[in-house]
Design goal:
This protein has about 160 residues and is of the alpha+beta class. It has one domain: Sandwich (Immunoglobulin-like). The chain is about 20% helix and about 30% strand. The chain is built from three helices and seven strands, in the order αβββββββαα. The strands form two sheets. It has a four-stranded antiparallel β-sheet with strand order 1-2-7-6, with no helix packed on it. A three-stranded antiparallel β-sheet has the order 3-4-5, with no helix packed on it. A hairpin with a 2-residue loop joins strand 6 and strand 7. The mean pLDDT is about 80.
Length: about 160
């Protein structure tokens, strides 16, 4: 008798992949003016800046439109199909073609006139400097002074 152990993580991953396919099919639209897919992104708070990476493999930089406001980032464009010949011999293709769009709202305002962009190896990387008010400021608190002169009347009474 062959015993097989239950592998919940494998089954969960299989279910996730099946759900992704269902949602991909629902997201595909008949109207070519609408976006048909969204690029994957990584968003990191790096102190004085936010770093945003977007996966856009095989897309010509001239087909990418990036718009940045103080509150949000919009990345859109189109990945064009390389071979439009119906007799291409494809058996299966899981590449995503067509228009894409991704809109991200930012947790704090940025200096949108100082954004730096780099596109290398199919990865778009944006460096988004935060406005001065949103940056992490370090303030030194003098604990010795507060211990000597309590400002809370309840603490003064408790010490007596």
């Amino acid at each position: 008798m062959l015993m097989r152990s239950w592998q919940p993580f494998t089954e969960i991953e299989t279910m996730r992949q099946q759900l992704d396919k269902v949602f991909d099919q629902l997201a595909t639209t008949k109207d070519k003016s609408e976006a048909t897919w969204m690029p994957a992104v990584e968003f990191v708070d790096a102190g004085d800046n936010f770093l945003l990476k977007a996966q856009l493999p095989g897309i010509n930089p001239k087909d990418i439109d990036v718009q940045v406001t103080r509150e949000a980032i919009s990345i859109s464009g189109e990945r064009r199909c390389e071979n439009t010949n119906k007799k291409s011999g494809y058996v299966r293709s899981e590449f995503r073609y067509g228009k894409f769009h991704r809109l991200l709202t930012l947790p704090t305002h940025i200096q949108n006139d100082c954004v730096q962009a780099e596109y290398k190896d199919g990865i778009l990387m944006l460096t988004l400097p935060k406005v001065a008010e949103a940056r992490n400021k370090v303030v030194k608190i003098n604990l010795a002074q507060t211990a000597e002169t309590p400002t809370n009347p309840a603490l003064e009474q408790a010490n007596q």
